[in-house]
Amino acid sequence: MSIKSRIRTIPDYPKPGIQFRDITTLLKDAEGFRLMLEGFTRRYRSDAVQVDVVAGIEARGFIVGGAIAGALGKGFVPIRKAGKLPGETITQEYALEYGTDRIQVHKDAFAAGTRILLVDDLLATGGTALAAAALIEKLGGIVAEIAFIVNLPEVGGEKRLHAQGYKTFFLTEFEGE
Ligand code: AMP
After folding, report:
1. Of ligand 1's atoms, which has the minimum distance to the CA of residue 123?
2. Is 0.90 surpassed by the pTM of this model?
3. pLDDT tens-place string over residues 123-140
4. Which is the closest atom of ligand 1 to the Cα of 125?
5. What is the pLDDT of residues 6-57, one digit of tens each?
6. Catalytic site residue from 6, 21, 60, 80
7. Element at 75 (helix H, strand E)
8. Domain boundaries, the chain
9. Matching CATH number, 49-173, of 3.30.200.20, 3.30.565.10, 3.40.390.10, 3.40.50.2020
10. Pair 81, 102: CB distance under 8 Å
Protein backbone atom coordinates (compact mmCIF):
# COMPACT_ATOMS: atom_id res chain seq x y z
CA MET A 1 0.00 0.00 0.00
CA SER A 2 1.36 3.37 -1.00
CA ILE A 3 1.33 6.83 0.53
CA LYS A 4 -1.36 7.92 -1.89
CA SER A 5 -3.67 4.99 -1.25
CA ARG A 6 -3.56 5.77 2.50
CA ILE A 7 -4.86 9.33 1.95
CA ARG A 8 -8.64 9.46 2.26
CA THR A 9 -10.74 11.71 0.02
CA ILE A 10 -13.81 13.31 1.61
CA PRO A 11 -16.09 14.79 -1.05
CA ASP A 12 -17.76 18.17 -0.50
CA TYR A 13 -15.72 19.11 2.61
CA PRO A 14 -15.57 21.83 3.90
CA LYS A 15 -17.99 22.92 1.18
CA PRO A 16 -19.66 21.50 -1.95
CA GLY A 17 -17.29 20.79 -4.82
CA ILE A 18 -14.11 20.41 -2.72
CA GLN A 19 -12.43 17.02 -2.69
CA PHE A 20 -10.73 17.12 0.71
CA ARG A 21 -7.52 15.05 0.80
CA ASP A 22 -7.38 13.85 4.39
CA ILE A 23 -3.87 12.89 5.53
CA THR A 24 -5.03 11.70 8.98
CA THR A 25 -5.56 8.23 7.49
CA LEU A 26 -1.93 8.23 6.31
CA LEU A 27 -0.55 9.46 9.63
CA LYS A 28 -2.50 7.12 11.93
CA ASP A 29 -1.01 4.15 10.10
CA ALA A 30 2.51 3.39 11.43
CA GLU A 31 3.73 2.16 8.05
CA GLY A 32 2.12 5.17 6.35
CA PHE A 33 3.82 7.56 8.74
CA ARG A 34 7.13 5.79 8.20
CA LEU A 35 6.78 5.93 4.40
CA MET A 36 5.94 9.65 4.59
CA LEU A 37 8.95 10.43 6.74
CA GLU A 38 11.26 8.27 4.65
CA GLY A 39 10.11 10.08 1.49
CA PHE A 40 11.25 13.39 2.93
CA THR A 41 14.42 12.23 4.68
CA ARG A 42 15.64 10.47 1.55
CA ARG A 43 15.64 13.83 -0.18
CA TYR A 44 16.88 16.08 2.62
CA ARG A 45 19.59 13.75 3.97
CA SER A 46 21.13 13.83 0.49
CA ASP A 47 23.28 16.73 -0.68
CA ALA A 48 20.63 17.79 -3.23
CA VAL A 49 19.21 20.45 -0.91
CA GLN A 50 21.08 22.04 1.98
CA VAL A 51 18.79 22.69 4.97
CA ASP A 52 19.59 24.39 8.30
CA VAL A 53 16.12 24.62 9.86
CA VAL A 54 12.64 23.22 9.10
CA ALA A 55 9.63 25.60 9.23
CA GLY A 56 6.06 24.25 9.32
CA ILE A 57 2.80 26.01 8.54
CA GLU A 58 -0.04 25.70 11.09
CA ALA A 59 -1.50 23.21 11.68
CA ARG A 60 -0.77 20.11 9.59
CA GLY A 61 2.64 21.51 8.65
CA PHE A 62 3.56 21.21 12.33
CA ILE A 63 2.98 17.46 12.32
CA VAL A 64 4.88 16.83 9.10
CA GLY A 65 7.57 19.48 9.61
CA GLY A 66 8.18 18.51 13.24
CA ALA A 67 8.69 14.88 12.27
CA ILE A 68 11.07 15.84 9.43
CA ALA A 69 13.09 18.15 11.70
CA GLY A 70 13.42 15.40 14.31
CA ALA A 71 14.50 12.83 11.73
CA LEU A 72 17.05 15.21 10.17
CA GLY A 73 18.38 16.42 13.54
CA LYS A 74 17.41 20.02 12.70
CA GLY A 75 15.48 22.67 14.62
CA PHE A 76 11.82 23.47 13.96
CA VAL A 77 10.15 26.89 13.54
CA PRO A 78 6.33 27.28 13.64
CA ILE A 79 4.58 29.64 11.25
CA ARG A 80 1.26 30.39 12.95
CA LYS A 81 -2.07 32.06 12.42
CA ALA A 82 -1.99 35.64 13.72
CA GLY A 83 -2.23 36.13 17.48
CA LYS A 84 -0.87 32.75 18.60
CA LEU A 85 2.86 33.33 19.06
CA PRO A 86 3.85 34.88 22.41
CA GLY A 87 7.03 36.74 21.43
CA GLU A 88 7.68 39.60 19.01
CA THR A 89 6.43 38.63 15.56
CA ILE A 90 6.31 39.77 11.97
CA THR A 91 3.13 39.35 9.94
CA GLN A 92 2.20 38.51 6.36
CA GLU A 93 -1.29 39.00 5.00
CA TYR A 94 -2.56 36.90 2.11
CA ALA A 95 -5.73 36.58 0.07
CA LEU A 96 -8.24 33.79 0.61
CA GLU A 97 -11.13 33.01 -1.70
CA TYR A 98 -13.23 35.30 0.50
CA GLY A 99 -11.28 37.95 2.43
CA THR A 100 -7.76 37.73 3.83
CA ASP A 101 -5.81 35.85 6.47
CA ARG A 102 -2.61 36.60 8.38
CA ILE A 103 0.27 34.40 9.46
CA GLN A 104 3.19 35.22 11.74
CA VAL A 105 6.63 34.05 12.78
CA HIS A 106 8.81 35.07 15.72
CA LYS A 107 11.26 37.82 14.77
CA ASP A 108 14.12 35.87 16.38
CA ALA A 109 13.10 32.50 14.88
CA PHE A 110 16.34 32.23 12.85
CA ALA A 111 19.30 34.33 11.76
CA ALA A 112 19.51 36.02 8.35
CA GLY A 113 21.08 33.68 5.81
CA THR A 114 19.59 30.53 7.40
CA ARG A 115 18.47 27.96 4.82
CA ILE A 116 14.87 26.97 5.56
CA LEU A 117 12.94 23.92 4.42
CA LEU A 118 9.31 25.10 4.41
CA VAL A 119 6.74 22.33 4.97
CA ASP A 120 2.96 21.96 4.71
CA ASP A 121 0.70 18.98 4.13
CA LEU A 122 -0.81 19.98 0.79
CA LEU A 123 -0.31 22.48 -2.05
CA ALA A 124 -3.50 23.85 -3.66
CA THR A 125 -3.40 27.50 -4.86
CA GLY A 126 -0.04 28.15 -3.22
CA GLY A 127 -1.34 31.24 -1.42
CA THR A 128 -0.41 29.95 2.03
CA ALA A 129 3.05 28.76 1.00
CA LEU A 130 3.83 32.03 -0.79
CA ALA A 131 2.85 34.02 2.31
CA ALA A 132 5.02 31.79 4.51
CA ALA A 133 7.95 32.13 2.10
CA ALA A 134 7.52 35.93 2.15
CA LEU A 135 7.68 35.88 5.96
CA ILE A 136 10.90 33.86 5.91
CA GLU A 137 12.45 36.27 3.43
CA LYS A 138 11.40 39.32 5.48
CA LEU A 139 13.71 37.95 8.18
CA GLY A 140 16.50 37.38 5.68
CA GLY A 141 16.01 33.62 5.57
CA ILE A 142 16.57 31.62 2.39
CA VAL A 143 13.76 29.29 1.27
CA ALA A 144 15.82 26.24 0.30
CA GLU A 145 12.75 24.30 -0.88
CA ILE A 146 9.02 23.98 -0.15
CA ALA A 147 7.88 20.43 0.58
CA PHE A 148 4.37 18.92 0.76
CA ILE A 149 2.92 15.45 1.06
CA VAL A 150 0.31 16.21 -1.62
CA ASN A 151 0.26 18.38 -4.75
CA LEU A 152 -2.96 19.27 -6.56
CA PRO A 153 -1.48 20.25 -9.94
CA GLU A 154 -4.79 21.35 -11.44
CA VAL A 155 -5.21 24.11 -8.87
CA GLY A 156 -2.00 25.77 -10.05
CA GLY A 157 0.01 26.33 -6.87
CA GLU A 158 3.06 24.50 -8.21
CA LYS A 159 3.22 26.80 -11.26
CA ARG A 160 2.77 29.85 -9.04
CA LEU A 161 5.59 28.82 -6.73
CA HIS A 162 7.91 28.01 -9.64
CA ALA A 163 7.07 31.36 -11.28
CA GLN A 164 8.30 33.04 -8.08
CA GLY A 165 11.53 31.04 -8.26
CA TYR A 166 10.80 28.52 -5.47
CA LYS A 167 11.74 24.86 -5.65
CA THR A 168 9.08 22.35 -4.66
CA PHE A 169 8.99 18.71 -3.61
CA PHE A 170 5.98 16.38 -3.23
CA LEU A 171 5.44 12.79 -2.21
CA THR A 172 2.26 12.33 -4.25
CA GLU A 173 -0.30 14.09 -6.47
CA PHE A 174 -4.04 13.98 -7.05
CA GLU A 175 -5.13 14.99 -10.52
CA GLY A 176 -8.65 14.67 -11.93
CA GLU A 177 -9.72 12.15 -9.29
P1 AMP B 1 -3.43 26.87 -0.66
O2 AMP B 1 -3.00 28.10 0.10
O3 AMP B 1 -4.58 27.12 -1.56
O4 AMP B 1 -2.26 26.19 -1.35
O5 AMP B 1 -4.03 25.89 0.40
C6 AMP B 1 -3.20 25.17 1.17
C7 AMP B 1 -3.78 24.87 2.55
O8 AMP B 1 -5.16 24.56 2.53
C9 AMP B 1 -3.05 23.69 3.07
O10 AMP B 1 -2.58 24.02 4.35
C11 AMP B 1 -4.04 22.56 3.06
O12 AMP B 1 -4.01 21.93 4.30
C13 AMP B 1 -5.41 23.20 2.84
N14 AMP B 1 -6.14 22.62 1.66
C15 AMP B 1 -6.47 23.28 0.51
N16 AMP B 1 -7.13 22.49 -0.34
C17 AMP B 1 -7.23 21.28 0.25
C18 AMP B 1 -7.79 20.01 -0.14
N19 AMP B 1 -8.42 19.82 -1.32
N20 AMP B 1 -7.69 18.97 0.72
C21 AMP B 1 -7.06 19.14 1.92
N22 AMP B 1 -6.51 20.30 2.34
C23 AMP B 1 -6.59 21.37 1.53
Report:
1. 4
2. yes
3. 999 999 999 999 999 999
4. 3
5. 999 999 999 999 999 999 999 999 999 999 999 999 999 988 899 999 999 9
6. 60
7. strand 75-81
8. 49-173
9. 3.40.50.2020
10. yes
